[in-house]
Write a structure and sequence with these properties.
CATH topology of the largest domain: MetI-like fold
Number of domains: 2
Radius of gyration: 27 Å
CATH superfamily of the largest domain: MetI-like
Order of helices and strands: HHHHHHHHHHHHHH
CATH class of the largest domain: Mainly Alpha
Number of helices: 14
Mean pLDDT: 83
Strand content: under 5%
Structural class: mainly alpha
Helix content: over 70%
Oligomer: single chain
Distance between the termini: 6 Å
CATH architecture of the largest domain: Orthogonal Bundle
Low-confidence stretches: 55-66
């Protein structure tokens, strides 16, 4: 098993390089980058000068290509943003700096990318940890109960909420909650992580303020995974309950609940274990749609705004962290499966 996980760790390297190169190439090829922004800024400055000069009207700009950057200006912009004509050399330089945990400086914020990402991390970790505890802490018992009480009143009633979770995306639910719960009924804050006067509140008031701001985003974080995990657990338990080994145990006189909790439950947790590692990326990655809707300044919002502003260093920094966590999450999933199912042997 040790050799297997060593191979998986080594396989992370080419996978990581492939992911980051595709995004690096896409970002460089997309319009609206630093060079285009510098060109537009120069054109706007020339139009303003032309409008103020009187002799040259706003529409009487030069037609000899002066609206483009001069070679000296082009070289200065490329040097400032670390851009050259050789994209492979630029990518190799980024990988070399990234290996030293140096992601450069943000073009928009003007600060170190690593410090910027770390400053946003506590918010996303807060929502990620609560989501994981609630998803696994509620969905596993709920799915087990639904399987035991299949087609009963509890199963049918709880299925309404589960199917609702399947039907509506988290960001759509967020818009509805803001309109009705926060705006029309004014039961909870419209958005933000905490209130503006949070530092002036007492400890108890801070806790209450944090909870009030977290309720609506947490509903959006949980709804999709909550429904999926509940039905996955229920279906797995029902599948194991109909298996031959459970029916044989019941025929030998094993009590019904003991057959479920002693035999069926262990095997039902195997598919659940495969999803655990994938939830790791949520601890840091967050959700840019939910954070944008509720104006939460987390990593999801940072990555989204950086992509819009073509802030390449921040985009690549967030991507590197998210990709690493996702790849590590896959390995953690394998470890969880091996812990739940002792029959699993990795060659």
């Amino acid at each position: 098993m040790t050799a297997y996980f060593i191979r998986r760790l080594l396989l992370m390297i080419p996978t990581f390089l492939g992911i980051t190169f595709v995004v690096f190439f896409t970002m460089r090829s997309a319009p609206g980058g630093p060079i285009e922004q510098a060109r537009m800024a120069k054109m706007q400055a020339m139009q303003q000068q032309g409008g103020a000069g009187g002799g040259m009207g706003a529409g009487a700009g030069p037609s000899n290509g002066d609206d483009a950057l001069s070679p000296e200006e082009m070289a200065a912009v490329m040097k400032e943003y670390g851009i050259s004509d050789n994209i492979m050399a630029d990518y190799g330089r980024w990988v070399s700096d990234m290996a030293r945990l140096d992601f450069g400086q943000s073009n928009v914020y003007g600060v170190d990318v690593m410090k910027l990402v770390i400053s946003k991390m506590p918010i996303s970790i807060f929502f990620g940890l609560i989501s994981m505890f609630m998803i696994y802490g509620i969905c596993i018992p709920l799915g087990l109960t639904k399987a035991i009480k299949h087609r009963g009143f509890f199963d049918n009633a709880s299925s309404l909420a589960v199917y609702f979770g399947y039907a509506i995306p988290g960001y759509a639910l967020g818009a509805l909650l803001i309109v009705f719960v926060a705006s029309n009924w004014q039961l909870l804050p419209l958005g933000g992580f905490v209130s503006e006067n949070f530092a002036e509140l007492s400890f108890g008031a801070r806790v209450a303020d944090l909870i009030q701001h977290a309720i609506l985003p947490m509903c959006c974080y949980l709804i999709g995974s909550f429904a999926f995990m509940t039905m996955l657990m229920k279906n797995q338990v029902m599948e194991q309950m109909s298996a031959d080994y459970v029916r044989t145990a019941l025929a030998k006189g094993v009590p019904y609940k003991r057959a479920i909790f002693k035999h069926a439950l262990d095997n039902s947790l195997i598919p659940i274990a495969t999803t655990f590692g994938n939830q790791i990326s949520l601890l840091v990655g967050g959700s840019f749609l939910i954070e944008s809707i509720f104006n939460i300044d987390g990593i999801g919002m940072l990555g989204f705004m950086s992509a819009l502003n073509k802030d390449y260093p921040v985009v690549m920094g967030v991507l590197a962290i998210s990709a690493t966590l996702q790849l590590l999450g896959n390995i953690i999933s394998d470890l969880c499966v091996a812990a739940v199912d002792p029959r699993v042997k990795f060659g």
